[in-house]
Write a structure and sequence with these properties.
heterodimer, A: mainly alpha, ABC transporter involved in vitamin B12 uptake, BtuC, 13 helices, B: alpha/beta, six-stranded mixed β-sheet, 10 helices, 35% helix, 28% strand, disordered C terminus
């Protein structure tokens, strides 16, 4: 436990808490709206944003926020025209934004940036700036979700009804995509471009298996996200392996446990066995 | 409250198309306050399209739709006077939401952006649940209900607004004959109790025609409209179903009879068309 005395470890724990909670919270909407692929698409787009930051000599955090948000809006715009399905639009931006990043990095002769840490993340390298910016943006994201709780709920549950009752559906959709983009950007330094979508989707999917109440699903998801982040972080320092990968493997393990012991499945099984008994008797 | 205009819904030379296929052709219809309309027609006749056009869910190709005197693309606060009940199969039954919360979402527009429901909202929801007799199931997740009960949740969601105009899309699709009979009787009661205007879409010619005050027979075009007993004759039904059909009363239950030969002919014609 003496490792907790180190500043880098304390920052890592704070970061794991913030990111675990935020990803899990936004993940509830991502999972229920079947937007998992968009989440992954935005995450990969962040690579283009990071490269852009390096070539412009700006803190990649800012370029990535803008780049990811614009990519999310572009996906919405292209698929809003109805001609192209959303998953196809994501597929196009998914690869092209990443290719854009690779091209930019190719243009930088003799760069010495640790890109590996952006692709797979390194939570132990989180800086004070990263932590504070995460905290501020995290408060903004949670605040907006709390403010538009019922609007986002209706938009997720029944988007057509949201239009009928007169909600500004297009604006709310863009807002939600922006929140996903912000969450992704906050997380890439810690868990990396490739793994962040797991942190968004898996806790929410696990929570979905545990409850049929929306608010409880949010709490369970956040609990699983934070718990898995802490556990993964300790495992990674103990086994001396990459923290992002350890966190993702932990949350995946939790998902499978939820899958096996889900009350819904248990209820279904009980019903089936009761039926079988009835048929036998 | 607003002064109720005599005409609640006005469709004028309405054309609606899905890509290059016309779903509604030149439909003109006006629905007056307090009326109970049944929109009848076979599958693909544009019934649902007509209802969706009334709440502004569809782009109009030409013509106009006015609800409470306002063009449908600029309904504004008039939206809070319209209750819309979609087909319950459109709802994701695995969604983690309870009956009470789902009903409350019907008032989302009325409560206002970024505001929380207050006591009057909770009272309206309780009243709506009482009207559809779902108080006992208010805390159940929607997936744990039967198809008919889920349909009632959607009706309660619309009633939570205490709407002056209630639009229902195939509300009896999940019900058997007996249940759909009692549903219409209940709806008839609602109509008198709430003194609102009702429009119901159905392919159930027999039952609907006994409860509504007016019918519109649709087959992309408006084949006929008016009082049920005047409109529902052999010619109309032939125009609506594209084949020889008869409608007669036998005891209490009206029947729709469609000639088998004729349906085969129309079916074959459709197949060769494709």
């Amino acid at each position: 436990m003496e490792i907790l005395g180190y500043t880098f470890m304390q920052r890592a724990l704070w970061s794991a808490t913030l990111i675990g909670a935020l990803c899990a919270l936004i993940g509830v909407y991502v999972v229920l709206r079947s937007m998992s692929f968009i989440g992954a698409g935005i995450a990969h787009a962040s690579f283009g944003g990071v490269a852009l930051g390096f070539i412009l000599g700006v803190n990649p955090f800012f370029t990535t926020v803008i780049f990811c948000t614009l990519t999310a809006w572009a996906i919405a715009f292209v698929s809003d025209k109805q001609k192209i399905r959303e998953d196809a639009a994501v597929g196009i931006f998914f690869a092209s934004t990443m290719a854009f990043g690779v091209l930019l990095i190719g243009l930088m002769r003799g760069y010495n940036v640790d890109l590996y840490s952006y692709i797979f993340g390194n939570i132990l390298a989180v800086s004070r700036f990263d932590l504070y910016s995460s905290l501020i943006l995290g408060v903004v994201v949670v605040g907006l979700i709390a403010l538009f709780y019922k609007e986002f709920l209706l938009l997720t549950f029944d988007p057509e009804m949201a239009r009928v009752v007169g909600l500004p559906v297009r604006t709310l959709n863009l807002l939600m995509l922006t929140l996903v983009a912000l969450t992704v950007v906050l997380s890439i330094k810690s868990v990396g471009v490739v793994l962040v979508s797991a942190l968004i989707v898996t806790p929410a999917a696990s929570a979905f298996l545990l409850t049929d109440d929306f608010k409880k699903m949010m709490w369970f998801s956040v609990g699983i996200g934070v718990g898995a982040s802490w556990l993964g972080l300790f495992l990674s320092t103990w086994l001396n392996v990459a923290s992002g990968a350890a966190i993702v493997m932990t949350v995946t393990l939790i998902f499978f446990l939820c899958f096996l012991f889900s009350p819904q499945r248990r209820r279904m099984k009980q019903r089936m066995s009761r039926l079988k008994q009835l048929i036998k008797s | 409250m607003f002064d109720q205009p005599a005409t609640i819904v006005e469709l004028q030379n309405l054309f609606v198309a899905y890509q290059d296929k016309l779903a509604l052709e030149d439909v003109t219809l006006s629905i007056k306050a307090g009326e109970f309309w049944g929109i009848l027609g076979p599958n693909g006749s544009g019934k649902t399209t007509m209802l969706r056009a009334m709440v502004g869910l569809l782009p109009l190709l030409s013509g106009s739709v006015k609800v409470f005197g306002r063009p449908v693309d600029r309904l504004g606060d008039v939206r809070q006077r319209i209750g819309y009940v979609p087909q319950h199969s459109r709802i994701d039954m695995y969604f983690p939401i309870q009956v009470r919360e789902a009903v409350m979402l019907g008032r989302c527009g009325k409560i206002g952006l970024a505001r929380r429901p207050d006591r009057s909202d909770h009272e309206a929801v309780a009243r709506a649940l009482q009207l559809v007799d779902l108080e006992d199931l208010a805390n159940r997740q929607i997936g744990q209900l039967s198809g008919g009960q889920r349909q009632r949740v959607l009706i309660a969601r619309a009633l939570a607004l205490m709407p002056d105009l209630l639009l229902l899309d195939e509300p009896t699709a999940a019900l058997d004959v007996g249940a759909s009979e009692s549903f219409y009787a209940w709806l008839h009661q609602m109509h008198t109790k709430l003194s609102s205007t009702l429009v119901i879409v159905s392919h159930d010619v027999g039952v609907v025609s006994r409860y509504v005050t007016a019918v519109a027979c649709l087959n992309r075009r408006l084949v006929a409209h008016g009082l049920p007993h005047e409109v529902l004759n052999r010619d109309t039904l032939e125009g609506m179903y594209g084949c020889d059909a008869m409608f007669f009363r036998h005891g209490d239950v009206p029947h729709l009879v469609v000639s088998r030969e004729q349906t085969d002919v129309t079916r074959n014609r459709k197949l060769t068309d494709e």
